[in-house]
Design brief:
about 400 residues; about 40% helix; monooxygenase activity; FAD_aromatic-hydroxylase; 16 helices; about 25% strand; FAD/NAD(P)-binding domain; FAD/NAD-bd_sf
Length: about 400
Amino acid sequence: MKNVNVLISGAGIAGVTLAHWLRQHGFTPTVVERAPAIRAGGYKVDIRGAALTVAERMGLLEEIRALRTDVRRGTVVDAAGKSVASMDGDTFGGRTHGDAEILRGDLHRLLYQRTAESVTYLFGDSITALRETPGGVEVDLESGRSRTFDLVVGADGLHSVTRALAFGPQERFVHDLGYRISICDVPNHLGLDREEVTYVGPGKTMLAYSTAGQEGAKAMFLFGSAELSGEPSDRAGRRRALASVYGGEGWEVPRFVASAAAAPDLYYDSISQVRMDRWSAGRIVLLGDAAHCASPASGQGTSLALVGAYVLAGELAAAGGDHHAGFAAYEREMRPFAEANQKLGPANIKRMVMRTRGQVRVSMAMLGLLDRLPGKERIMAKAVAPIHRAANAIALKDYRTTVRSS
């Protein structure tokens, strides 16, 4: 095996999953992560299609199902707080075929536990420079350390530092879809019990939910960037932006906005996609959102991270560590899958955030009608069928067998 010493930038879902599979195939991964520890909390995520197979091959599927969010009900309300439509949680979330919904922090912890004793983690540090040599990549770290690795993997998200250093500035690859997302923990003042409630206004959507074992609740704000008077540059500005965008909305929205203003964990970012002609350059390769972010609107970011990590490690191992062959095979396998899932994002966000009051009224009327129709579950299943086609748009090899046999 060649090129066994691999540096992974980013200890998110993609990076930690890759570290697991590289160790399984005989590589020696090191993971560098800017945060001081694995991040807890986070939003709920769905694991679908091919990603379920990866979780099963990691021996994690039963543990994931044991930690499922168990959201039992989803409801859409109008400005007066009146229920427009209500259905069971799986139908509301578009989950079928054994899909698993779990809090991102719970999944992250399960993955990290698989690698904590066998993988070196450098927390509180990050890459500042990369210099490729004939025999490896010289890496400078923010801590002042310099080390040489055979290969470097950028699994450091939408705003990837590794991508910027190896491929060029963010503006070349990150495409803003014209929407913003903000998420935070909030008090459960509605007394939600494994429920999700969604409010839709013109140019903006807000939802809150509680999950099994969670005392508080989560709130998510989705809105068009056209609603902003200017792009906020700091945390205080983002809080002011939420208050401005959602000012005057009905239901419990003002109360949730006030809670968000006091939340220490407020997350805020653009709804964007990463589009690149190639994911590797020499001994450096990108993974997950850094390579092909499909945006949160796709609902497939976590699944893409799990599958991509599995495929990258497997193809690199199948090539005997030859990075030219391994990276090329990884991209051949993953690119059609990534592109199929990227197509979901622009269409989904337009359904999630209505531009005008007229669109909101029509959507609410249609939901109200659907709520009274027999067989609404079948209708909803047809509506989410594109997600499940994209989630299964790859024929996964069993690298556990192919790598050993080769």
